[in-house]
Amino acid sequence: MRARTTTRTRWVMVLLGVLSPLAVLGCTPGSDQANTTMALPVHGACATLPPGPAEPPAGAVVVDPAIPGDLQAKTKASPAGTTFWLKPGTHTLGTDEFDQIAPKDGNRYVGAPGAVVDGRDLNRYAFTGKASRVTIEHLTVTGFDAPDNEGVVNHDSGADWLIQSNLLTGNHGAALMAGARQVMKGNCLKDNGQYGLNACCGEVTDLLLEGNEFVGNNADDVESKYPDGCGCTGAMKFWEVDGADIRGNWIHDNRGPGIWADTNNNDFLIENNLIEDNDGNAIFYETSYNAVIRDNTMKRNNVVGGREFVDRDDNFPTAAIYISESGGDARVPARTDKIEIYGNDLEDNWSGITLWENADRFCNSPANTSTGTCTLVVGDVAKCAPPGILREPLLSDCRWKTQNVQIHDNRFAVDPKAIDCQAMCARMAVLSNYGSSPDWSPYQAETVPEAITFDQHNRWYGNDYTGPWTFVAHDASTLVEQTEWQATPYRQDQGSTFAVGGGG
After folding, report:
1. Among 362, 360, 402, 355, which residue's Cα sits nearest to residue 378?
2. Which tens digits make up the pLDDT trace of 395-452?
3. DSSP string for 106-124
4. Do the domain assignments include residue 143?
5. Which pLDDT band holds residue 202 (cuts at 50, 70, 90)?
6. Distance of alpha carbon 154 from alpha carbon 238, whole angstroms
7. pTM for the full model?
């Protein structure tokens, strides 16, 4: 959920873009080491989905689309570990909204060329239950009517699922939920009502997303259904996920953010993705911990959202990468104890990187929109109240801190004319607000603006800038030029290079 304001952007759909070539390096899930022996060129999965087998695999149960409910019936009648081959054609379930397929442990569902599982806007869910080690591949799954914040495939977050080479399109809610150690490779998640992927809530660990394409998601403009918005849209959303490798994906033309990690996520590796033309942030990392964001290409993100801020005279520095109440903490086990952002290429986005911390948002405060949650280093919401919160260690630990963020060796280029910007773009920022609420808060006044700007080890250095960049420091009213940004007291972007260019 958005930390700064209760007014949400009403995202406007953007036309689909044209794929740029991108090469990625593979690495093992949970490892921060690149495997330089393997180069995987990324092409749009939606255009290059490999066909399934034209004949049933050995020992497979054949599923006939001419028999309504055949897939449900044969799943129920067959033992765990069965492979099902879905013949070409449109496979349907029953006519009740809760007709669904409940796999057993180790089941495998393989589609022949042209195999479609269609909910016909009657059924809520396709594949459900808590079975483990289920495989779904070479299927088109469409027409399911899951409610908001629920999903169609792996609805109940079963563990160790493999989802690969599928077309998940035209569903309401989320096309796909995630379970522990889920692997998602080479899928097309397109034009789904709310999310392509929803990973939630507290038992999801060690995810791998590789070589997928997310395009046109939040097609139902779910934010507009709620008077104050919901903070529940975009290509993908993560909540309380511990460990995720997101690499080599093409994430584009979604209504809302591209990658959104919201509330007590930890240990994310986001690398070698092409993220472009999303209405919202390319990457939004919120009230979360410890991440590496490297070697991504980000183009023309948050242009729609940025213009909306301008239209309502909101001077907040909305940006392509938005780090909100998130930082590195060695007490939360991960592959890094920082948020490290490096080796990325950002071009013609609505601003660069914003580091933000809401002084009024902390565990047990009314401004904590992640209701009922506390920081991972405290856990118990009740502890974060007077008198305990007024002294250490709770004084420090009840805040989600934007701290230990290192931003280096990135390229930031912007031409305001290319994104039709007359004001409030081409900014980089580290800031907070004046603390004022609640009346018992120990973080009143300038406490948090001073901390995030000067004391929490947030550093830019060694970056390459092209364009008329300006910098926001301490609070939204303080806009400084390059020389001030590099000088005392901020001392940011030491060793960086600056060229006006970009229409400046």
Report:
1. 362
2. 999 999 999 999 999 999 999 999 999 999 999 999 999 999 999 999 999 999 999 9
3. T-EEEEPTTEEEE-TTT-S
4. yes
5. confident
6. 15
7. 0.91
pLDDT in tens, 356-410: 999 999 999 999 988 899 999 999 999 999 999 999 999 999 999 999 999 999 9
236 and 260 Cβ atoms separated by less than 8 Å: yes
Q: What percent of the chain has pLDDT over 70?
A: 91
CA dihedral angle for residue 45, residue 47, residue 49, residue 54, rounded to 10 degrees = 180
* Residue among 101, 99, 61 at smallest CA distance from 79: 61
Task: Note the Cα 139 to chain centre separation in Å.
Answer: 24
CA 434 to CA 443: how far, in whole Å? Answer: 9
Domain with 90 in it: 50-183
Transcribe 136-170 into DSSP letters: EES-EEE--BPPTT-EEESTT--TT-EEES-EEES
d(CA 293, CA 347): 16
Indicate the SS3 state at residue 15. coil
- For residue 377, count other CB atoms closer than 10 A to its CB: 18
Integer Cα distance of 142 and 309 in angstroms: 35
3-class SS of residue 214: strand
DSSP state of 317: -
Rounded Cα distance between 446 and 422, Å, is 31
38 falls within a domain: no
Instruction: Tell me whether residue 334 is in a domain.
Output: no
Query: Using an 8 Å Cβ cutoff, are 414 and 426 in contact?
Result: yes
Let me know if residue 217 belongs to a domain.
Answer: no
**What's the number of domains the chain is made of?**
1
Q: Are 414 and 348 in contact (CB under 8 A)?
A: yes
Place of tokens 């104890």: 337
Q: For the chain, what's the residue count? A: 504
- pLDDT tens-digit profile of 59-114? 999 999 999 999 999 999 999 999 999 999 999 999 999 999 999 999 999 999 99
Q: What is the rounded average pLDDT for all residues in the chain? A: 91
